[in-house]
Amino acid sequence: MKNGEFPGMHPASAMDYLPVAQLREVQFARLKETVRRAYENVALFRKRMDERRLKPSDLRRIEDVVKLPFMVKTDLRDNYPFGLFACPMREIVRFHASSGTTGKPIVVGYTQEDLDVILAPMAMNGEEALGSMGSDTPIALLSTRPRLLFDYFTELFAQVKLIAAINNNDPELVRAWLHKFDAIVNFGFLGQANTYAYRHRKVSLASVLDHRFGRMRDQVHSWQAAIDEDAMVFTTHPMTAPKVTEDWSDDDSPGYWTGSASMPRSAQFRRTAVHIYQPAWDEATDATLWSVFPYRQFTHAFVPQDRFDEVRQVGNWTIAAKDGGYIALWSWRTPVFKANDPGVPARTFTKPYDLVADGGPDNVWIVEVGNDEQDGDLDAFVASLTAGDPVVDRSPDGFDVAWTSPSCGAVQFSSAGAFTVAGKEQPLGDHPRHEGPWGIIEHESAQHELSNSANTWKLDFDAATRTVS
Questions:
Q1: DSSP state, residue 156
Q2: How far is 433 from 304, CA to CA, in rounded Å?
Q3: 3-class SS at 44?
């Protein structure tokens, strides 16, 4: 049937005008597909089918629908909130939930395909297809009636709406719930982040210090070492499996490379840094949230071997070099490059770039950067690093780390204690804006001045002047 056979009819209505026999064929095909999908993905439905000794293949005709187990409203509450979802959470783009005034809220999730289908009845009669969820507000394009402000909160605010619904839309209950689970649900939370950066013309290292230790963050990296815009290294605790795609932007947030399922406790002093991964939450924290946010049981590093001149592995050290710049990374758990097999996107790389430290999400990563001007050739740099291994003690309370940095001396750090270098405690915040051989500029200072033996550079933000002498 072609749409032209029904002039003026919206395409979404065409199915209603199929000949009865053809309509039954379509209905039966869709019924079988729905039953198969529910049986494979919904434990409660599969259990009830098995109790009746039924398999999806037992459906022979549309009249067999009477043999199927039916769900009732209490099932939605008993399996709250996501127990009846028949697709992965990553495919959900929108939530709707009841207020829960008569019990637990009823939560319904929608994929993008669902939303596309839902738009069809809106186009036909200007009424929202979700009216049964408590909203009869039509889409603004198809109606002259005004819409409520809250109705504009689409999938961008789906998580916020769900949290509100779970807590009966009570601000005090929402506040208490967020405090209880802030290690997991903290999207959109803003706060001060103390960043510390070391820069040399051949290599740089920057870290965000002691920021939300153990908590999930959706769009951040805790540290990065770089020689140029391509030759860089960083670590994350991945939330999801890697996407089979060549496009980095397809990653979830947090995903495999984007964000972090748990932030490390990081400390840095000049050319060396320590990053302690110790998630503040796991499956035991809340089974429901874990069903939505299960993380990977390892940490890993991005080390694109193709983008460096040379990459070496000595013990638990991985050392990358390019144009006289060095980045060295040590892992408490043994790191191994994961091969670029068909399940892992190779993107533009021919060599493995995913350095995985398997065995658990708790780990210690130590980074030291160097260069041929200060540290000699690569052999000398490697020899200085491997003269003594870092010492890591893992207890039920966390980690204690001690190692001797070639550039900074004795370094000590832990999951809860101070950060010391050469016996002196180093701050994890309130650093100067700039500190170097040509001067110190304090944070928020309106006057900046740097000088060497021959020249002086000044900025005066109050007077809006710049002078060089």
A1: G
A2: 31
A3: helix
